[in-house]
Amino acid sequence: MPMARQAKIVVAGDSPVYRELVRQALVEKGYGVKVAANGRQAVELVSDFRPGVLVTDWEMPDLSGLELSNIVRQNPSSFVYIILLTANSNKDQVVEGLQSGADDYLTKPFHPGELVARVAVGLRMAELTQEIQSKNKLLEELSLTDSLTGMPNRRAFEQWTTRELESALRHEFGFWIVMADLDRFKSINDNHGHAAGDEVLKRFSAVMRGNTRASNMCARFGGEEFVMALSHLDASGVGIAVERVRSAFAVERLSFAPELSMTASFGVAGLSPGATTTLDGLLSRADAALYRAKEKGRNRIELAETFCL
Questions:
Q1: Higher per-residue confidence, 290 vs 102
Q2: Beta pairing partners, 56
Q3: Do residues 196 and 293 touch, judged by C-beta distance below 8 A?
Q4: Which domains, from first to last, does the chain contain?
């Protein structure tokens, strides 16, 4: 049984006899077992050992099995299947135990074969839950990622930037939005094909990421439009940062079309006294500055009319 060799189980209880009975029955099946003599030890083991199943006695001197179940359930990112061991067969108490967060129960004295069977069910449930959580995490990452470039997408940018803007307003540090648009991108697609256009988008995204600090954010907004959020800089610092991206991209060349000139235009807007301080407002001002950069010849940087020096 391959899963049994890899599966991890925590056994908690203040009775050395029952702890050993449970441990022995599970070890014989090849499971990795850690034993806790009380509830607080069990909490630590669950956190460190990250088991698939927790088998806990109902009655313990420091934490009851119900209290332990509640504590373990407070970490929804790490699912543990909980089996309560109890000498009480009263159905009202059993219901109470299941409502506390336990998944199953076993009445003492128990049959070792039944214990092993219930643990096997718990491990299957834990494995399935972990697979679902992993897939949900992947889906969430995909929903925040541009599939072509691998950059954050507009949704991811807006989520991250909204939080950063609130922090900048609260703590009064510099915050800037940079809108970037690839110059004459339609002609690249028309004259060289969409594969060439995709390669240009990938090259620009690589240049942006390579010239953006880890504490800042850059993303693909859609089409040939990209955006950056830069913080803790003054106007001069922002100019230097954006110029680094502009000049680096201008010297990029495609191996299959070395004659192709690739450039981008940029519009920049920052927090300013008397100017709008919402994300939509900053994006709108940066977009207007970008439009002026296009009008003035492209491959250049324009600042919004009001900005913070």
A1: 290
A2: 12, 84
A3: no
A4: 2-142 (3.40.50.2300), 154-303 (3.30.70.270)
Residue positions annotated with a catalytic role? 224
Tokens 């915050």 found at = 175
pLDDT of 13 over the 80 cut: yes
Q: Tell me, rounded to whole angstroms, the distance of Cα 215 from its chain centroid.
A: 16
Closest CA to 257 of 206, 181, 182, 193: 193
Contact 241, 149 (CB under 8 A): no
> In this predicted model, what pLDDT tens digit does every residue of 161-207 receive, in sequence order?
999 999 888 888 889 999 999 999 999 988 888 999 999 999 999 99
| Residue corresponding to tokens 């990112």 | 77
**Residue keyed to tokens 């970008």:** 290
Residues whose CB falls within 8 Å of the CB of residue 134, separated by 6 or more in sequence, listed in order: none
**Is the pLDDT score of 141 beyond 60?**
yes
